[in-house]
Predict the 3D structure of the following.
Amino acid sequence: MASGPLTPAEILEAARKRVPGMGIATVYRNLKLFLRSGLAREIALPGSSSRYELFNLEHHHHFQCRDCLQVYCLHGCPGGLHALTPEGFVLEEHEIVLYGRCAGCNLDYKM
Amino acid sequence: MASGPLTPAEILEAARKRVPGMGIATVYRNLKLFLRSGLAREIALPGSSSRYELFNLEHHHHFQCRDCLQVYCLHGCPGGLHALTPEGFVLEEHEIVLYGRCAGCNLDYKM
DNA sequence: TAAAAATTGATAATAGCTTATCAGTTTCAG
DNA sequence: CTGAAACTGATAAGCTATTATCAATTTTTA
């Protein structure tokens, strides 16, 4: 299980550990099917190409380390987002991304 | 004042109302300066190119309409994000994006 | 005001990601 | 088996967004 959503290139790299010789086209092809059928969703972050994750996971959010750029899944959700929604708007979904420094990079920094 | 963060193309379009003949290169050039000096920040959303907004605004978040794709600024912040941050991680910033239907599109839908 | 430096718009070039193509292979129904 | 349909990997092609280039113009400096 991945620690967070993956870019197509990362998906390819991971898949090749089980299916050596897989091509990037297959990744994009299946990704598109997964997205269309609602099995996966796209997470866009500044500075890199979109990442994707399976949509059968518990509702959660993400943390990107400013140092190693790794994206981690978090547990839980602060809630209270309806309070931000303007009059007349309908809130359907939301995405929260935290930015900072992960434990590993934070440690490196101190040494 | 814009209702939300703009793509480079939208920035160009807006700027040309005041400075006709401005080129896209100038937009990117100045955007890069703004970003480097911390005057502007980048908002990435799935499906479109990054949007940018001035960073001298009150802390706030965004709402994208699934219908017209317009991005709106919201007021306020739910807080409580430190509770999501794993042990050993350092939280520096965060971004919240709500998705749904804006008042205008919601109205159209009902008619 | 003259020369140097900085900025501009147009557009060519680049870069990166995504899709299309195609021949070879696999799957599967009959 | 057997033929049709679906799928595959490699790679060419396409597409967008961004950057580099360059001559012309504007601004700055002394």
